[in-house]
Write a structure and sequence with these properties.
Layout (H helix, E strand, L loop, with lengths): L19 H8 L3 H9 L6 H14 L5 H8 L4 E6 L5 H16 L3 E6 L4 H13 L4 E4 L7 H8 L3 E5 L9 E5 L1 H15 L4 E5 L5 H16 L4 H4 E5 L5 H13 L6 E4 L2 H13 L9 E3 L16 E3 L2 H17 L7 E4 L2 E3 L10
Parallel strand pairs: 1-2, 1-3, 3-4, 4-5, 5-11, 6-7, 6-8, 8-9
Antiparallel strand pairs: 10-12
Helix pairs in contact: 1-2, 1-3, 5-13, 8-9, 11-12
Bound molecules: alpha-D-ribofuranose.
The site of alpha-D-ribofuranose (RIB) has 10 residues, from loops.
Length: 352
């Protein structure tokens, strides 16, 4: 529904930001004295300090933190580039990052690459220009050539939700091969022999590893991939992508009786499509998601999903970044969390 905006009077630009020179002129002191009041007040006579503080209050002066931090090389900002800011998985991760940064009086700048390498590179450059302490990146592709270049320019990088290709780079991830295996094994144990898989591009490591896990489980059950798995790659891992993938799976000549989705947003679209077609879940089609975000358990048909410790992923990544950016004796770490199968009503045995 379009929002209506009522304009009240002429729009006015925010007043010019006051400078440290404005404060010095009003207080009748030098810029250096104002700087001392701000940074080393003990060096300034009380009468002068009071005069300067009065000028600061009167002008509403706010010092330029980024300029100060750039000069001192001690930024208090950290950047995070996630794949999709509208995916609750990443907002839960970001919550963990933000809470951990706040404990060290740091602030988060959050951006979304939308699975696009060009956007990821653009945001990386913008964050470096801001002089951030470091960047957490959930890479938009397997091309990590940017990684060494960014670190060589002095910006710490921790890979977020992706295992590191090298022991010299910190990372926090979940074993997504295991996650895909858990999802497929659960359905096989229910008796499903022909499973659909709505996945994203395998240029995204999470999707590639989940796919590996699904195929590993089918082979371990002695099934031929060609007979037991119908894969479809959708353009976006969201509800529309999920419905797009469902339509393709429903068109195959030999129907599937269960669908694994690369994440819960995709599963939402699959469930929506099945409801539109009056295909009952799980009786006529079992559905398994991935992430176990907040809504998974409260859907009309609660979603079976693969849980990722989202908040802990964020905290762990932020801790590694603060340690790397703040210490010369930092030891790189590659943290790998384990996924967990959460069984709910959306998965059950195939109809006989
Ligand atoms: O971005 C795609 C998926 O990768 C997310 O839903 C989450 O599962 C992440 O690991």
């Amino acid at each position: 529904m379009a929002a209506t905006v009522e304009r009240m009077g002429r729009s006015s630009r925010a007043p010019r930001r006051r400078s440290i020179k404005d404060v010095a002129d009003l207080a009748g002191v030098s810029v250096g004295t104002v700087s001392n009041v701000l940074n080393k007040p003990a060096l300034v006579a009380e009468e002068t300090r009071i005069k300067v503080e009065a000028a600061i209050a009167s002008l509403g002066f706010v010092r330029n933190g980024s300029a100060r931090q750039l000069r001192a090389g001690t930024s208090q900002t950290v950047g995070a580039i996630v794949l999709d800011i509208s995916n609750p998985f990443f907002t839960d991760v970001a919550r963990g990052v933000e809470d951990r940064l706040a404990e060290d009086d740091h602030i988060l700048i959050l951006a979304s690459s939308d699975d696009r390498l060009d956007k990821q590179h653009r945001y990386l450059r913008l964050l470096e220009e801001q002089g951030v302490q470091g960047v957490l990146v959930s890479p938009a592709s397997n091309d990590l050539t940017w990684l060494d270049q960014t670190r060589a320019r002095g910006t710490a990088v921790v890979l977020l939700d992706r295992p590191s290709p090298s022991p010299q780079i910190c990372s926090v991830a979940v074993d997504d091969v295991k996650g895909g295996d858990l999802a497929a094994t659960h359905l096989l144990e229910l008796g499903h022999q022909r499973i659909g898989f709505v996945n994203g591009s395998t240029k995204i490591r999470q999707c590639a590893d989940r796919r590996k896990g699904v195929r590993k489980a089918l082979r371990a059950a002695g099934l031929r991939i060609a007979d037991s798995l119908v894969e479809t790659t959708v353009s976006a891992l969201n509800a529309d992508g999920g419905e797009e993938g469902l339509e393709r799976l429903l068109r195959v000549s030999e129907p599937v009786t269960a669908i694994i989705c690369a994440n819960d947003l995709t599963a939402l679209g699959v469930l929506r499509g099945l409801r539109r077609r009056r295909i009952s879940v799980p009786e006529q089609m079992a559905v398994v998601g991935y992430d176990d975000v907040e809504f998974a358990g409260v859907l009309t048909t609660p979603l079976t999903s693969i849980r990722q410790p989202r908040y802990q992923i964020g905290r762990a990544a932020a801790t590694l970044l603060l340690n790397e950016a703040g210490s010369r004796t930092h030891r790189h770490e590659q943290v790998l969390f384990q996924p967990e199968l959460i069984v709910r009503e959306s998965s059950g045995p195939p109809a006989r």
